[in-house]
Amino acid sequence: MSPRSGSPPASPTKTGLGQEELRRNNLSALLTRVHVHGAISRAALTRDLGLNRSTIGGLATTLEELGLVAERHPSGVRASGRPSLVLEPRRDNVAVGIDIGVDRIVTALVALGGEVLQRRQRRHAPGEHDVEHVIDSAAQMVNELLAGQPGVRCLGVGVSIPGAVRQADGLVRFAPNLGWVDQPFTELFSQRVGMRVFTGNDADLGVLSEHLRGAAVGYSDVAYLNGSVGIGGGFLVGGVPLSGARGYAGEVGHLFVDGHSTERCRCGNLGCWETKVGENHLLTIAGRLPGGGPEGVADVIAAADAGERRAIAALDEVGRWVGVGVRTVINIFDPEIIVLGGSMTAVWEARRDIVDTTVDQWTLMTPRRDVVIRPSAFGLDSPWRGAAELVFAPLLAHPARVLDRTEGVLPA
Question: pTM value?
Fold first, then answer.
């Protein structure tokens, strides 16, 4: 935070930071620690953050005055002496997380600290993929969520989109499975709900949630592959999100994998990976109607387990193509861990041996045994959980400044 106009600049510390900036950084570190890890004692914060007790006490008091944390005496403590107070996130500070899927919209109210207070889901009706219908449906669901939790302070709305989202302004450059091109969704939706809206690609948000609280906790080089009708990829390299110059990195569903394919992808090309492993491809070659979603995939797997030959052949084929794509991801990104989300998880679990065999055949520097492959901890919910974290990010970076702003914040 820069000094107020007319006030003298803060004196620099030995680290080169002014006192005000140092305090902001410490507030951010403390609130982030409480948000990610939950209730924690002042003594533990003193140890973990390397700050003295009086500094921790002052920071805790500030965050309590801002209405972001609450302090309580620890329960069940029998030791002699005065026990250290425990800080915990206040659950009346909330974010709305939304996942705009090809077949459904999911909305959830998430409290500071990550607790999910409510979750709602609504399937798209035929012909309702256009931006206006999606905005109408999602806005109604947001209003329903907030009406069910009176007294909360909503910090904004985060939205997951299955497509390329421009980082600078949230414009949806291309979402082929929704039929969107150059749609100013973020601007339009913010106007509709009257709050700040943060928009991101579904796989980018999926890797964020899995790294923060899910299957990829503790890993720095992560690939998250989200498979449904389309396939998206979200990546962390050295713990930093891989976004690209404009935010479009990670479109692994459109990797060219089959030079003999005659099936045209929604992007317009032939031979894209998602045409070989997407839900509708699996359903079609298994003799089912497309559009069945995760439930249809589960039906094919159950039929294969029961001995249905066409379902078995379909799963075997898709399993091989999953392996082809995973192998390519390993060769390009050299991740420590690959987290599989959406229906790709179910296919991998049903045909793990085929996937592993395919990966082992053609990986270059990194053998399959050196890469952890793990299902998502949150299943289909990873993207909207990550979307909620987009909303919390500015607050965690600068608690006082965000709460000074009235834009997008409902009164408590």
Answer: 0.87
When pLDDT is averaged across residues 392-406 and rounded to a whole number, the result is 82
Say what the pLDDT of residue 348 is.
Answer: 95
Q: What are 312-328's pLDDT values in tens digits?
A: 999 999 999 999 999 99
Q: Place 15 in a pLDDT band, splitting at 50, 70 and 90.
A: low
Mean pLDDT of 103-110: 95
Cα separation of the two ends of the chain: 25
